[in-house]
Amino acid sequence: MTQLTYVLVHGAWHTGAELEPTAEHLRSRGHLVMCPTLAGNRPGDDRATIGLEDAAQSLAAYLDEHDLNEVRLVGHSYGGMVISRVADLRPERLARLVYVNAFVPDPGEALNDLVPPHYVELFDAVSAQNNGAVMLPFPVWREAFINDASLSLATSAYEKLNPHPYKTFQDGIVLSQPMAASPVPKSYVNCREDTALPQSLGWHPRLSEKLGLFRYVECSGSHEVWFTDPQAIADAIEKAGRD
Fold it and tell me: Which residues are annotated as catalytic?
């Protein structure tokens, strides 16, 4: 088997540690897999001031620091915003972008532009009370994000989450061109039971089609399949990332 390089980029409220079970499945198949934690989600990071560009620059710096090339850059959820920017910053290091139920922005769009108004209202209120940081209320996490888990798994997974810098949701992304025009090959993994976004404003095809030409891969599981079935999402990522 050919060894490929995967960098798994977490979503909001997560760190790289939560993607390690999936990474282990990929490593067992001979791949090099790394799971960085973005600026904004590290212990001690200032959630009031860190924005989307800071997170993206931290990922670009990680690729440089480890001198990674021919990278399959895998972004989950909010991580889609970050990998989109890094495709502009470090295209020469990338072999493919893989979006896993992830946001695909147009130039100038913010994550808040891509979610339903009720989420923006919720996050506005939470961040105002928490110095610019947002957390998901547990009922939203349980019912919409990890709906395929037992209550005990949903609870233990929730306890691993960290407050997220709201500015990263509010900042419009800097892109030199629409993602459909990016020369980096692209894939989109769609988890079928994902209800983190309402089906009327779903991930696929609403967001995936903004990639232009892309490879489509389906996977069973919820938005948080990383916790509920890491092997299934590893299988889908491997399929999405192969040449």
Answer: 77
